[in-house]
Structure formats: structure tokens, C-alpha cells
Amino acid sequence: MTICIRLQTIAGVKEIFPLLLKLIFRAPKIAGVLLLLALVALASSMSYAGFLVVGVVSDYFGTGRVVAGLLFGILFARLPLVRQGKLRTVGLLPKPARLPVIVALLAFCLLTYLYRGALVPVVFLGFAICFLLAWPRIRKMAMDRALSSIFGSLFKPGRPRPADESIIDVEFREKKDR
Asked: What is the pTM assigned to this prediction?
């Protein structure tokens, strides 16, 4: 936490992305290792949050973790279905209901552990909730940035230009010889 605060005060929020790009181009192996470590930390924290959710649900239902895990497997399972020549997936929960149900389960478990006074599980569950709520926006921003850097203004010609001063937009035209 102090590293993030120091990074923001030293470099500023707008300076972080150029610093990351410099790190990627100067030391790609180190950047790859850091990315891999960040993904491992994310995966382990999300797995631990799932473990906590299964534990709380098994406590409330009075069953074992295996039965609670099977109940979640049935609830969130997506099975393939071929209908009218198109491959689709079907399940108990429709697509718009999955994220609210998962966030509600995580919030319920967070409140349970908060009531019990266990702070470490609360931190992991809070992180999982924040990541699940922020992931669609993070994914959209990353994809938009990647596509705009690859395709430039050809991808979305009618979009407004960003107010970022570090982006230089130049257009070249040739003069016709008379």
C-alpha cells in the first residue's frame, strides 16, 4: 500500500503507464516475470476467496465442503447445446444474473467473516469483490487502448480524440503536381 502511494506521489498517476512501457521495452524478461507474478497473485487470491465462500456456505447448510462445491457447480455450470446449427451454452443462471449472484455471495461471506472478526478473509473477499466489479471496465479500457494503438483512427473514425497531451496525432497529405 505504501509502495502504491509512493509511486503515485513520485511519478503521478499519468506517468505510470509510460514507466511501465519503458520497463517492458528495456527489460522484457523482468516485465514478463512481474506480469506472471501479478497473475499468480490474482489467481491465488481469487481461489482463496472461492475457498472461503464454499466454507461459509457449507457451514450455513450444515454440509461438507464437497457438497457445497457440487451445489455451486450445479448452479454455475454452463453446458453446450447445439440448436438450429449454432453452438450455445445453457445453465441455471442467465448471463445477466451471474455477476450479481457471485458478488452477492462474496458480500454475504464478507459480512459473515466481518461479524466473526476475521480480518484476513475480509481483505481477500473485499479484493475479490472489487476485482469482479472493476474487471469489465479494465478489460474494455485495455482492449480499446490496444486496438487504438494497432489500428489508430481507422478502427473508430467517428470517436472523439482523447484529451491526453502525450498523444500526438499527425495527418500527412501529399500535394498534387499540376
From this structure: 0.67
